[in-house]
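Tokens in:
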């Protein structure tokens, strides 16, 4: 079994910063990609940013230049700077194609979500 434990959400004023953290635990053999999605009320869940196992990163156009993902094994942080009210959403950690020791195949996993609210 794989668990994704998130931390770091909260309330911040526009222009402020927050850092989200997510750690994957379990008998993990490999992970193809880890990243963060978000879902605002009434909207579909969307990719914010992720990091692939080869070190490459993808960012949504709306967060380029403001959000970054540092590199670490089986963890994914999201450094969010210059936050805007439109960044308000529940942020979900995601691990893609996780292979578990001793089990065939690979599966995706989601964290429970953490609320980020940007408001004055």
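Residues out:
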């Amino acid at each position: 079994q794989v668990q994704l434990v998130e931390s770091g959400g909260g309330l911040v004023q526009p222009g402020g910063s927050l850092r989200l953290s997510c750690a994957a635990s379990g008998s993990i053999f490999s992970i193809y990609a880890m990243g963060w999605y978000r879902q605002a009320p009434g909207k579909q869940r969307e990719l914010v940013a992720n990091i692939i196992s080869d070190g490459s990163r993808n960012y949504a156009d709306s967060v380029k230049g403001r959000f970054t993902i540092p590199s670490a094994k089986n963890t994914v942080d999201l450094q969010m700077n210059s936050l805007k009210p439109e960044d308000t959403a529940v942020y979900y950690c995601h691990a893609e194609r996780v292979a578990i020791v001793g089990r065939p195949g690979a599966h995706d996993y989601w964290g429970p979500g953490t609320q980020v609210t940007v408001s004055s």
